[in-house]
Amino acid sequence: AQKVTQAQTEISVVEKEDVTLDCVYETRDTTYYLFWYKQPPSGELVFLIRRNSFDEQNEISGRYSWNFQKSTSSFNFTITASQVVDSAVYFCALRKDSSYKLIFGSGTRLLVRP
Amino acid sequence: EAGVAQSPRYKIIEKRQSVAFWCNPISGHATLYWYQQILGQGPKLLIQFQNNGVVDDSQLPKDRFSAERLKGVDSTLKIQPAKLEDSAVYLCASTLGDEQFFGPGTRLTVL
To answer: What is the mean pLDDT of residues A73-102?
Structure first.
């Protein structure tokens, strides 16, 4: 069975702090994809990144970075120098290769205080 | 490029009433999804269409939920009759390739 666990329900930081959102996944598939989405108060899910299971290279995009470790089945997301606009709910999701169906975690609510 | 459109944005009904949601995907996107997002949880797939055919409806409560995508473009999701536990945000998404684009959702409150 496939499963995504985001153990952190809510995180509160002060602006300019770095913050890491954890994601642990379970799957028996050898080929799969991992995603992060941002859900601001407006409700729309915004795609942030997709990573396939054969690419463990870490990725950096501006203040965002992702650490994928197959050995620990984790795909963690770090925001450097957080800003108030980063306040949102962040979802990690898993997709098997043969399907477009996304399995979402329960989300982590990030609050960045000024 | 216009995004995924959904209406209404909000709906309040009483239990046992019927309700319908509408979704217009991004032009040219063959695959359309309906998700249910209960407060405090991640979205859960209800049904997936490829053009006007159903690919996966394994988690759709078929005794009360129905969905259609006539002509392979717009889609409607209906609940009849609604229960209290149906209170949630209903998200529509579409995809052409690999990335799913989500609409703003319809927030349903069942009293």
So the answer is: 92
